[in-house]
């Protein structure tokens, strides 16, 4: 770990000798315990992690800083087992963040259910994150009075993600603020801004509904990349998922030809390979004049071109 990052971190980092490969993060003023677990180490988790908790499966960030994630919860005594289950079911992740409380005061099921849904709502809005969850986790059994205290756990969780290189958004450019409100907003952690937009109270505040995602949606299509000259019809696509090797072909209309069938969307072709939902832009890489590249990086190149064009050309 970089010495400067460790100094700026709110955590005490410990690597127990009995748990080689497990990076534990602890705060002095919290009962929360977090651990960063490499995929290869998941089978060797100590039974201290056989508890109630939540977890985030992390994809390796690409060249643009974007990364994928899957958010889940574990019933009492099953956190480490859930992680081992995902070794078989999901091949996209290389690292996981585990979250529990000290054993003297463990989470109960309604708390982890609420925390799982809250993490989902924040991550689904983040510019650099794409979620592999098919649906939003739902758990409304935690009383509103208890929810306020649970929000204290969000800062260490997102600080831990930032510490290991998983940011929610790209750094904002430094510029003079025109108002005090804007100036203050510049110093609010990204997760707090997303959290404030995530749950909205209506009426007397008893009904808190997850807001629809306001994440900037990519409007770029494969056909756009072809028309921009970044990709050529007939180019070969390759799966980036080692357990699911596959090849496909780019059609002239932007569709993906795989196993004798044309798929309109990259994610559809990816799901045909894995049999579960994937983000097609990170699942596939493609042959280009610059070599084999991830489709996410090719898309990012076109979007940067568009941003650089004068307004009268748009």
Report, as a whole number of angstroms, the end-to-end distance: 44 Å
Structural domain count? 2
Write down how many β-strands occur, each being a DSSP E stretch of 2 or more residues. Answer: 15
Mean pLDDT: 78
Instruction: Enumerate the spans where pLDDT stays under 50 for 5 or more consecutive residues.
Output: 1-8, 13-19, 174-188, 197-216
The description of the largest β-sheet is: 7 strands, mixed
Alpha-beta classification: alpha+beta
Q: Report the principal-axis shape.
A: elongated
- Total number of helices: 11
- Helix/strand order, N-terminal first: HEEEEEHEHEHHHHEEHEEEEHHEEH
User: What proportion strand?
Assistant: 15-25%
Placed side by side, the strands forming the largest sheet appear as 1-2-3-6-4-5-7
Q: Helix content range of the residues, please? A: 25-40%
The radius of gyration is: 21 Å
């Amino acid at each position: 770990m970089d010495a400067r990052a460790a100094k700026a971190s709110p955590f005490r980092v410990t690597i127990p000798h009995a748990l080689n490969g497990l990076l534990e993060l602890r705060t002095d003023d919290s009962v929360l315990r977090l651990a960063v677990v490499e995929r290869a180490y998941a089978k060797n988790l100590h039974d201290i992690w056989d508890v109630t908790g939540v977890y985030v499966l992390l994809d390796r960030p690409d060249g643009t800083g974007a990364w994928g994630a899957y958010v889940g919860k574990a019933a009492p005594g099953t956190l480490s087992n859930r992680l081992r289950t995902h070794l078989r079911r999901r091949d996209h992740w290389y690292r996981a963040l585990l979250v529990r409380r000290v054993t003297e005061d463990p989470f109960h099921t309604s708390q982890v259910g609420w925390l799982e849904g809250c993490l989902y709502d924040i991550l689904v809005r983040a510019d650099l994150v794409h979620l592999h969850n098919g649906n939003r986790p739902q758990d409304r059994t935690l009383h509103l009075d208890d929810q306020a205290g649970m929000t204290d756990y969000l800062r260490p969780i997102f600080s831990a993600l930032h510490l290991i290189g998983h940011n929610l958004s790209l750094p904002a450019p430094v510029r003079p603020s025109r108002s005090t409100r804007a100036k203050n907003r510049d110093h609010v952690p990204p997760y707090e801004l997303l959290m404030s937009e995530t749950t909205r109270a209506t009426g007397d505040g008893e009904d808190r509904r997850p807001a629809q995602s306001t994440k900037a949606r990519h409007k770029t299509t494969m056909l756009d990349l072809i028309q921009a000259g970044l990709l050529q019809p007939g180019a070969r696509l390759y799966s980036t998922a080692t357990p699911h090797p596959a090849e496909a072909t780019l059609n002239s209309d932007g569709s993906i030809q795989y196993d004798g069938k044309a798929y309109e969307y990259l994610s559809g072709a990816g799901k045909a390979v894995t049999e579960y939902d994937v983000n097609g832009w990170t699942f596939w890489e493609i042959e280009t004049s610059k070599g084999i590249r991830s489709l996410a990086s090719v898309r990012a190149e076109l979007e940067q071109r568009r941003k650089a064009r004068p307004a009268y050309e748009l």
